[in-house]
Design goal:
6 strands; alpha+beta; disordered C terminus; 96 residues; 1 helix; six-stranded antiparallel sheet; single chain
């Protein structure tokens, strides 16, 4: 993985019977000091949400943390945006 790419996932969880429409975004970005950061954003769809930035020593530690959060969200019923399968996120990257 190149250091200058941004990896991100957009998950959503909608249940009209409970008036639930939530999103969760996980992304890995380089920090100004060369460390890897895991950025988590979540909230109700259409509203501003919360954001948390976690610093990690290297890219592999950040990816491991992202995988842990991804598994938690799948267990809670979140799906990848666009309905793609669980394994589709591997290799998903957008150049910065």
């Amino acid at each position: 993985m190149a250091q200058d790419t941004i990896h991100y996932l957009v998950l959503h969880r909608c249940d009209p019977s409970c008036n639930m429409a939530r999103y969760y975004v996980l992304s890995i970005e380089p920090s100004l000091f060369g460390d890897a950061t895991l950025i988590r954003e979540w909230g109700r769809i259409g509203r501003p949400g919360q954001r948390r930035v976690e610093l990690y020593e290297n890219q592999s530690c950040a990816v491991e943390a992202l995988e842990t959060w991804l598994q938690r969200k799948f267990r809670r019923g979140y799906l990848l945006q666009g309905g793609s399968g669980r394994e589709a996120w591997f290799g998903l990257s957008v150049g910065s």
